[in-house]
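Usage

Read records sequentially. Each one opens with the input sequence:
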Amino acid sequence: MSHEIRTPMNAILGYSQLMSRDPNLGAEAKVNLNIVNRSGEHLLALINDVLDMSKIEAGDVKANPATFDLFGLLEDLTSMFPLRAETKAVRFELIVDPECLRYVVGDQRKIRQVLMNLLGNGVKFTERGSIKLRFHLSQRGARLAGGAGGRYRSRYRARGAV
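and closes with the structure output:
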């Protein structure tokens, strides 16, 4: 079953990546195609999440922590929402604490899913004004592992004016 669902999405992603290499493609079209590609990658991750539901029901869900670029994730996510917000005449703003770490260890897929849901609901339920995503990462306690590292807690909040 999973192969039948993933194959068409992988084809779409493959073609969008091929199109983005076209030297005759204008700058605006490249930006838009990049958004389509990132959105497609997110959709593929959602497909994987849906297919993982059987694992959730069986109590076999595991986090997959890895080092990732938090700023890159936030930039990818926030590039998808301004267009949706503009169609409703709503402003969109990302505010990242200046002391926030760029590279963090966590389950990027699950963090992406939570933030996508949060931002999606912000756009869906905000009729006018603005949507602000504030992201803050604070140290929660020290963990000595070769003299480096620590545990951090992230706080994020999306606020929309109705």
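Summary fields computed downstream for this record:
- The helical segments are 2-20, 27-51, 53-57, 70-86, 108-125.
- Confidence is low (pLDDT under 50) at residues 141-149.
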